[in-house]
Amino acid sequence: MADTSMQEQESDRPPGLTARPNRPWRVAVLANIKDENAPRPPGVPPDAYADFDHIETVETIRAAIETDGHKTEFIIADENLPYTLREFNPDICFNIAEGLGGDAREAQVPALLEMLKIPYTGSRVLTNAIALDKTLTKRIWRDRDLPVAPFQEFSNGDENLRHNLRFPLFVKPAREGTGMGVDMKARVENPAELRERIKYIIETYKQPALVESYLSGREFTVGQIGQPKAKLFSRHPEWYGNDGFHRFPILEVYTDKSVTPGIYSHAAKAQQIGKEGAPDYLCPADIEPTLAKKLHYLALRAHNILNAQDVSRVDIRLDDKGEPYLMEINPLPGLTPGYSDLCLQIAAEGIAYEDLILEILYLAAGRWGLLEPRSTFSTPKKKR
Ligand SMILES: Nc1ncnc2c1ncn2[C@@H]1O[C@H](COP(=O)(O)OP(=O)(O)OP(=O)(O)O)[C@@H](O)[C@H]1O
Ligand SMILES: [Mg+2]
Q1: What are phi and psi of 9, to 5 degrees?
Q2: Residue 213 pLDDT > 60
Q3: Which end of the chain has a smaller Cβ tally under 10 Å, C or N?
Q4: 249-290 pLDDT, tens per residue?
């Protein structure tokens, strides 16, 4: 995109009204891309790579960033990333990379960028590493008195089941996303089913199995954007409350009539919205204001306790008494327009996709010192 567009926009603006970059940036969009035709090495689970992005999503993010005059490039987040980054020499990276294997894959790209001293969007290394590990995340939340269902991690499968865990139970991989390893057999009714499922998860996904009490109530996902200084760097300071956060409308995922009734599984997530077998997505969720307030409060506490940055989506489910429990946090929420939960939430509020993407970029740029905060801009003095 030509440099002129930003200069034109710049001159159109009165000074001091908004934080603006003083020149267009070079923005690298970093992602891992789905390749449905790629041969699958033996032993790789059928739903592996489900959280990788389609190239169309990357192109939409690039287009959104370019609407504000920046130059973008897509860089695939593979082993060549250190070299391709050097070539493109970005001012900042827009990171949606899920990483390639290991016990903290979502932290790989942030770790590399920290080493190369390149600013990037969203949460940093430790948050991405911990959030991928659902057991560790729950231990931290539990320690800070946030409600989480009773749980136990199984590393080799023959550990004794703790007494506070009563059937039905729910078994999932400890370190996956996008419903990977979650299907109708995830809910187990007795010790035999439990042992079989734990064994399946450990062997198939090569990682521990997380066993939790089954939460039988409604399911919500709660998105948020912000940081204490959001108003100083935002293109939309009016979005943010005094704490610097904007809470998106709560999305209820109603799965009872989906391909996996009662479970927001990998298969359910893969259904085309509105088609038979897909969950119903209800946004804003039809819930009491007190429950909505509680869900927003819990989601933001969950975000801040993990030191998440700029944006996240927190998944919450109610138990049989209607009490909410945190399931997990997504510091790299999906950003596919018209499909990802967070995109459904912004659409319900009438927020344009471009605004969400640019907001994530500018909040990060503010944290990394690429933007001068609005308040320090010189504003014309009032005449006495
Ligand atoms: N303890 C539980 N009780 C009942 N259902 C559960 C429980 N834990 C998970 N689920 C179901 O499994 C789904 C996937 O679980 P979870 O959100 O932890 O995994 P995920 O694959 O990381 O999700 P995402 O796609 O948001 O990254 C939930 O949306 C929910 O429907
Ligand atoms: Mg989830």
Answers
A1: -60, -40
A2: yes
A3: C
A4: 999 999 999 999 999 999 998 999 999 999 999 999 999 999
Q: In this structure, what DSSP letter does residue 235 have? A: S
Task: Give me the long-range contacts of 181-188 (CB less than 8 A, separation at least 24).
Answer: 181/45, 181/47, 181/205, 181/266, 182/263, 182/264, 182/265, 182/266, 183/260, 183/263, 183/265, 183/266, 183/267, 184/260, 184/261, 184/263, 184/265, 186/263, 186/265, 187/214, 187/262, 187/263
Cα 371 to Cα 359: distance, rounded to the nearest angstrom? 13
Which residue intervals of 89-234 are DSSP H helices? Answer: 108-116, 125-132, 134-143, 191-205, 230-233
pLDDT 10s digits, 177-197:
888 999 999 999 999 999 999
| First and final C-alpha spacing in the chain | 44
Choose among 167, 234, 202, 306: nearest CA to 17: 234
DSSP assigned state of 150: -
What is the C-alpha separation between 265 and 280, in angstroms, rounded?
A: 13
Domains and CATH numbers, the chain: 3-132 (3.40.50.20), 150-213 (3.30.1490.20), 219-367 (3.30.470.20)
Tell me: the pLDDT tens digits for 17-69?
566 788 899 999 999 998 776 666 677 777 777 778 899 999 999 999 999 99
3-state SS, 188-202, equals ECCHHHHHHHHHHHH
Q: Which tokens sit at 26?
A: 């070079």
- pTM, two decimals, is 0.91
DSSP state at residue 375: G
Name the β-bridge partners of 224.
247, 312
Q: What is the distance in A from the centroid of ligand 1 to the CA of 333? A: 14
- Residue 313 · residue 333 · CB < 8 Å: yes
Residue pair 201/163 in contact (Cβ under 8 Å)? The answer is: no
Ligand 1 proximal residues by C-beta, below 6 Å: 134, 149, 170, 172, 176-180, 182, 212, 214-215, 219, 263-264, 315, 317, 327-328, 330
